[in-house]
Amino acid sequence: MAPTKKKHATSQACIIPGGFTVLSLQFSSDSAAQHKLYVKEHKVRAERSSHRPLDRTLFVLNIPPYCSEAVVRDLFSQFGCVQSVELRDHPGSFQESGPKLSKFFKPAEKKGFKVGYIVFQKSSSVAAAKSHPHSVPLVVCTEQRPVRTGVQKWIQQYTESFIQPDKLQQIVNSFMEDYDKRKEEEAERQRKEAEQQQEDEDGWVKVTRGHKGTKARPHSEAANQRTLQKEMRKKKRKELMNFYTWQHKNTQKEHIAELRKKFEEDKQRIALLRAQRKFRPY
After folding, report:
1. How many Cβ atoms sit within 10 Å of the Cβ of residue 64?
2. Which residue has the higher pLDDT, 66 or 9?
3. In b/e form, how buried is each residue of 229-261, taking b as 16+ CB within 10 angstroms?
4. Strands 82-88 and 57-63
5. pLDDT of residue 49
6. pLDDT at residue 60, rounded to an integer
7. Distance CA 143, CA 162 (A)
8. How far apart (Å, rounded) are the C-alpha atoms in residues 191 and 184?
9. Which of 5, 47, 143, 215 has its CA 20 to 30 Å from the CA of residue 188?
């Protein structure tokens, strides 16, 4: 009875401090060495990204360099249907920085151990992965899924480094189509934001609050035309409002000119009296 209990105890999942579950990884079925993966449910409340649902995302540490995204997907597919796999150098929030670039236009990836975010289609798959027995390793390289290492891997990388012109042209065309589509969407968004600011007849501008975190949009020809028309309307209103002000300033200028004219006439009259020696100031 004792050996039966011991065998039953080793078939349980191994949980370590921090909430991580230890999974054994074996490169091939005849390999004696084993590698350890540390997995737990992704529970970062500050991250509100739909790309990593909190109830269906498994966080994995210590993924070896020979495990690509395709290999990780196949390894964890035994626990359920995998929706997406993301491998990164360090843990962090999901950052969507523009369109997804092809491998031809991205810098070479760092070689080393990775962290992974595995998103399943069902939340029960996360529990199944966490409850996997520690004594049953996950096999990386099989006949159905061969993984190349050593010289064979270097030869494969060298062969894949050559770029086919037709394939590269297709990637460039696809990127430009996506770029044009995003530009059209941005122009439509700018038009909707411009409609939110409506100027009434008295010159007041009604400003409505836009989306939080919106960035300053670049100037376009349509935006420049709208700004120019707006400045022209302001200039016309300013001319109308300053009409009486201009008239008042003109009257003041005429009064000052009249005073200067009288002052000059008085100076000439005083000079004439001095010349005739008839000037008696006292």
Report:
1. 14
2. 66
3. eeeeeeeeeeeeeeeeeeeeeeeeeeeeeeeee
4. unpaired
5. 62
6. 92
7. 27
8. 11
9. 47
Q: With CA atoms as reference, report the closest residue to 205 among 191, 195, 215, 213.
A: 195
Q: pTM of this prediction?
A: 0.52
Tokens 């997995």 belong to 39
Q: What percent of the chain has pLDDT over 70?
A: 72
What are 209's two structure tokens? Answer: 């609050």
